[in-house]
Write the structure tokens for this entry.
Amino acid sequence: MSAQIIDGKALSRHLRTRFRERVGALAAHGVQPGLAVILVGDNPASRLYVANKVKACEECGVASFLHACPADITEAALLGLIARLNAAHTVHGILLQLPLPPHIDMRRVLEAIAVEKDVDGFHLYNVGGLVVGNTIFPPCTPYGVQLLLETTGIEVAGKNVVVVGASNIVGKPMALMLLHKEATVTVCHARTRDLAQHTILADILIVAAGKPGLIVAQMVKHGAVVIDVGINRLPDGRIVGDVDFDGVRDKASWISPVPGGVGPMTVTMLIENTLRSAERCLERDAEVGHPVWDAAVL
Ligand code: NAP
């Protein structure tokens, strides 16, 4: 058996085409969705991620406002920028590219982003919403995985789902989202003893550890669905996931490749959240009869 491929690139392309219709509907009300992207310092990986996000905005008709800040920006200056973006009527989403330099308190800065514009879903309010199953903006990577499963027609309710990786941005929100879809969820992390005894039970295995080759065929149940979130650059420059793709594809029923699986979906869900924010904003403005946010100088 050779697994069918879960094609995140194709689904992203499809979704982005549909986004243009929503952008058109907003334009009819005089609204262009806008995403502010804050980049601190010049980490090459962060620059690349930010460039991809800006490009996706262009492709979908979303305005992007890139704020490239020096690595030595003070926390106060960063908080000041966020306050201005919170108040700006043209900005519906604020994305703070992580990681931040060590002199900045990441949590304090993330909590400063207006909940209504927290399109990355990292504000504590949105994180808390995930726990009760009612978040405004689901975090983009697990949201993308959820949509990949849904659109592939993979039923989650009642399934054994094993999530390898327990980070705040991928593993934990992923586990919560699938728990709300009535899966039986196991979360593994670096201190998990005998990882294979957990992964072998998975009907759906989601791997987000950042360790190339962590999951090999012997650890996977016949017919399992395998989603590889990992992105790792090997010394020879190749980009691979956490799963031994060639070995595991002979055992799995479905598998997502790297690249071309979860990666494109993450950026696409960021645009989805930004559009939704603009739509919510329009609804709120209509309710109160005037713009909720005051125009501010960007
Ligand atoms: P992270 O913050 O470093 O977290 C990694 C998680 O994996 C931690 O919970 C860690 O356990 C666990 N882990 C590490 N080694 C393990 C092992 N040998 N066995 C089991 N668990 C192990 O990383 P992240 O930000 O979640 O990202 C994970 C991977 O996904 C990375 O490759 C990253 O590049 C990729 N990623 C991809 C996308 C995308 O769009 N496709 C988006 C975000 C991240 P502890 O908690 O015990 O340390």
Remarks:
- The pocket of NAP is lined by residues 141, 164-167, 169-171, 188-192, 195, 208-211, 214, 229-232, 262-263, 266 (CB under 6 Å).
- The chain is about 40% helix and 15% strand.
- Residues 53 and 221 are 36 Å apart (CA to CA).
